Amino acid sequence: MTDPLPFAQETMRRALMLAERGRGAVEPNPVVGAIVVNDFGQILGEGWHQKHGGPHAEVHALKAAGEAARGATLFVTLEPCCHFGKTPPCSRAVIAAGIKRVIVAMPDPAPHVDGGGIRELRAAGIDVEVGLLEADARRMVAPFVQLITQQRPWFHAKWAMTLDGKIATGTGHSQWITNAASRAIVHQLRGRMDAIMIGIGTALADDPQLTARPSGPRVALRIVIDSRVRLPLTSKLVQTAREIPVLVIATADAPHERIAALQSLGVETCIVGVDAAGHASLVDVADELGRRRLTNVLVEGGGQLLGGLFDLGYINEAHAFIAPKLIGGADSPTPIGGRGLAMVPTEASLESPEIELIEGDLYVHGPVRRQA
Fold first, then answer.
1. Hey, which residues are catalytic here?
2. 73-76, strands of its sheet edge to edge
3. Nearest one of 187, 138, 180 to 158, comparing CA atoms
4. What is the pLDDT of residues 29-42, one digit of tens each?
5. Where are the alpha helices (DSSP H) in 114-231?
6. What are the tens digits of pLDDT across the range 95-125?
7. CA-CA distance, 82 to 105, in Å (whole number)?
8. pTM listed for this prediction
9. Are 170 and 331 in contact (CB under 8 A)?
10. Is the peptide bond before 176 cis (omega within 30 degrees of 0)?
11. Helices and strands: H and E segment counts in the chain
């Protein structure tokens, strides 16, 4: 679409920036930002969706604008909702405020909205423009869209590796490959995730806590893919399960007494089917996490788990921390195992990746391009 106002792009970019403030606090709802402006581009009120179950971005912006909202323009990053949920419909609040024009970055693909908010606004005589910075808005709410449309979480693959692509030595030693500043970013990532997932190999090798330190806006469910339930009862995960939830995903072959022992210590267990190799089916795992309405899942390895997700095309975003160190060794593990691709991709695997220098480490991250 063409910019409906000379200051439109600048205003929508600010609305997108505001929306990001809700990241980690609003899921499974989408992050949304809204700004009320007059005909000269002066901001009269602004807001963002701040917490799940709380007022939406439009309501915050309209409240901040007050009576000045009458006859003004509302910029919003996602189509206003038109249904009663935990809060009343935003479309009705917009109409009641006397807004004359609404500029929407993208329609809401949720089945209970799906253009209904836009239609309601237009039926009330409000001029509605859709599509300003839509690509940016879609990237921002991609995890929400995937959960809504595919019933599957947005999987973030995270790994730390050396310059020669190793995540540990041949003996299994891996602490620490990256520096403290890189590890601090990982803790920030953990603090906005619905869940953190590892395989049993990583659990046995590292005995991790999988917590955010310091804590973030969310407390992540800690998940271990553990077909035979080998997670030690003395592990840090099990010993802290009553304070921070732990889910062990096993198969029907897992010993019942081991499952009962974990459950007695506060660990939740879930049985899934097996894949062709006899491992826990990652398709079933993804379906289960989708049923639980988990939006963002951080997968911290190891190579077998990340490889399995990669082969399924389930890795949606990558976070690679690369240290200027060399390990070598044919038996030293690499981040992503599995079958892998038969040919080198013709395009970059990450779409518009961001590359940051973190006190000597490289942090490369971005959404993963769909595999052909």
1. 58
2. 43-48, 33-37, 73-76, 101-104, 127-130
3. 187
4. 999 999 999 999 99
5. 116-123, 134-140, 142-150, 180-190, 200-206
6. 999 999 999 999 999 887 778 899 999 999 9
7. 17
8. 0.93
9. yes
10. yes
11. 12, 14
